[in-house]
What we know:
Mean pLDDT: 77
Structural class: mainly alpha
Distance between the termini: 30 Å
Strand content: under 5%
Amino acid sequence: MKPKSYGLLWVALGACLWGTDAVLRSPLLGSLTSIEIVLLEHLILSMVAIPYLIMNRQWMSKLSKSEWILLFLIAWGSSGLATWLFTEAFRHGNPSVVILLQKFQPLFAIIAARLLLSENLRKQYPYWLIIALVGAYFLSFGWNIPFGAASKEQWIGSLLALGAALLWGGGTAFGRKLLGKMSFVELTSARFALAVPFLFSLQLFKSGSLWDVPTMSANQWGYLLLLSLFPGLLGILFYYRGLRDSKASYATIAELTFPASALLLNWWILDRGITLTQGCGIVIIFICVLALTMDRDPIRLTTNQRRTEGVRI
Length: 313
């Protein structure tokens, strides 16, 4: 088997681990607020990240003031705020819909790359974006006209999920600028550690208390540890391991294991399926993302581009 094939297998494995997010996050929503879940998740990851950053602190002197600002935007926006929006979306919408709306992330990443990195944006992009939005509507509401209390919840869940995708997409462009000064492991570790003060501030704003996490059972701690380990850490590491030896256009196809595994697990464990019309919406979004991604990658990407293409940085 060629090295590229192994790379795609790593990408597919990492994306499959992302699909476990809903089944691990949803059981915690009954007793913890969204901000408490995200704060505890980042505290667990920081227990690994902070010692690494201290031992490998040479990167700190390499960053300019503007690069430090980008790093904080990644930590506070793409890690802290985006993960909170993503978690809160599960309270209002179908977990499968929340997961699948994250396929908008590459579309937002392309816009951010154009604005921040002056990357070329094909003329047909606005048309593809409009078509993808139609697909998002079908995915969220089917053929229904979104009015009434139930539809309000669907609107809130969908908008929160899209907000998370927007922040993760922007973080991809920010990360692309920083990877020339930092390694992937340094950037990921700094992202987790620097997000913690922001999340404590958000916890204080939401509840009026800096630390008000209720007593948790052993099962809840188990879910939280698995959430931090599998979709939070190993999924990203496996994805980057595979993307190093894969073209982005091929990796996008391998990423389809993410929604496939998420839908299967959500149906099997959470008993949450999707309708035929919602399935059509999924297909529309996938076609738009795949068309734009393949168009952007006619030749082999550089090392830094491969590291950041379409990943939740």
